Amino acid sequence: MTSTDETEFDADVEATLRARVGQYLVGSLEGLGVRVGLACSRFNGGVTSRLIDGALETLFEHGVDRSDVTIAWAPGAFELPLVARGFATGEQVDVVITLGAVIRGDTGHYDIVAGECARGVQDVQLATGVPVVFGVLTTNTVEQALERSLPDASNKGRESAETALEMVSLLRQRIFES
């Protein structure tokens, strides 16, 4: 199941919540000065390239300078957490976006690769405090992967880039530091 109109966040609820608390933090999509690392998977690279296109288009639309974007290629999705860790610990980026596609096949390999990639990405961001966005498609079919990487607003690379910018903005508000 994917997000629908019935599950989207209601703007009226946001206004009500703002009135009920002392501080209400939300990130913006402002990209000026944001340094981005794209950790990308060569396996299923045709899909990954489409996700990259969506991510770059979105980053540039929101003011990220092309000189502030670095792309690094890993052989597959399983290796993406290590690339993300390299970015996050190298202090050259504010956020990492992982992009790739794990497509179910006839064996259990899918479950291991998809699960360990997701766990590894989460581990990196929790250990380093640098946001690492999980932009890796996990689909049952090639058709689903192609559908989620179309050159339109439904492209999950675009969504990942927006998430990245919002997380950087939110963390820069410094409310979370002790």
* Total of domains: 1
CATH C-level category: Alpha Beta
Element order: H for helix, E for strand: HEHEHEHEHH
Mean pLDDT: 93
Low-pLDDT windows of residues: none
State the shape.
Answer: globular
| Ends apart, CA distance between termini | 38 Å
The value of Rg in angstroms is 17 Å
Mind telling me which CATH architecture this is?
3-Layer(aba) Sandwich
Spell out the CATH superfamily. Answer: Lumazine/riboflavin synthase
Query: How are the strands of the biggest sheet laid out side by side?
Result: 2-1-3-4
Helical percent range?
40-55%
Layout of secondary structure:
Elements: H1 11-20, E1 36-41, H2 45-61, E2 69-74, H3 80-89, E3 95-103, H4 109-128, E4 132-139, H5 142-147, H6 156-172
Parallel strand pairs: 1-2, 1-3, 3-4
Structural write-up:
- It contains six helices and four strands.
- By secondary structure, it is of the alpha/beta class.
- The protein has one domain: Rossmann fold (3-Layer(aba) Sandwich), CATH 3.40.50.
- Helix 2 (45-61) links the parallel strand 1 (36-41) and strand 2 (69-74).
- The longest helix is centred in the middle third of the chain and has 20 residues, at 109-128.
